């Protein structure tokens, strides 16, 4: 049986690092979604003030499994 995943795009930022911003995106997604499987960082950006980086930003694509029960219901309707 083939697996189906859904991908959402999130923007996250951190005052510490890009890694911390990516973790914030995953943490936020995990609070409202089940079965988060991976994160792909599409873009990196930094805010600079007075010659120093003040915020690290990422554009993250988070993937998660669709619930099996939903997929099964859809297949049954097609038959």
What does this structure look like?
The protein has 79 residues and is an alpha+beta fold. Helices cover 33% and strands 48% of the residues. It has helices spanning 18-32, 68-78; strands at residues 5-14, 36-49, 52-65. A three-stranded antiparallel beta sheet has the order 1-3-2, with helices on one face. A hairpin with a 2-residue loop joins strand 2 (36-49) and strand 3 (52-65).
Structural class of the secondary structure composition? Answer: alpha+beta
Distance linking N and C termini: 16 Å
Put simply, the count of helices is: 2
Oligomer: single chain
Number of strands: 3
Q: Look at the structure and give the mean pLDDT.
A: 88
Radius of gyration: 17 Å
H/E element order = EHEEH
Give the neighbour order of strands across the main sheet. Answer: 1-3-2
Biggest β-sheet, characterized?
3 strands, antiparallel
Helix content: 25-40%
The outline comes out as elongated
> What portion of residues belong to β-strands?
over 45%
Low-confidence stretches: none
Would you spell out the secondary-structure blueprint of this structure?
Blueprint: E1 5-14, H1 18-32, E2 36-49, E3 52-65, H2 68-78
Antiparallel strand pairs: 1-3, 2-3
Output the keywords:
single chain; 79 residues; alpha+beta; three-stranded antiparallel sheet
């Amino acid at each position: 049986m083939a697996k189906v995943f859904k991908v959402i795009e999130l923007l996250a930022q951190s005052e510490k690092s890009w890694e911390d911003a990516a973790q914030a995106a995953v943490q936020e997604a995990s609070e409202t979604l089940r079965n988060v499987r991976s994160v792909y960082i599409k873009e990196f950006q930094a805010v600079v003030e007075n010659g120093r980086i003040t915020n690290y930003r990422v554009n993250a694509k988070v993937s998660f499994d669709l619930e099996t029960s939903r997929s099964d219901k859809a297949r049954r309707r097609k038959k």
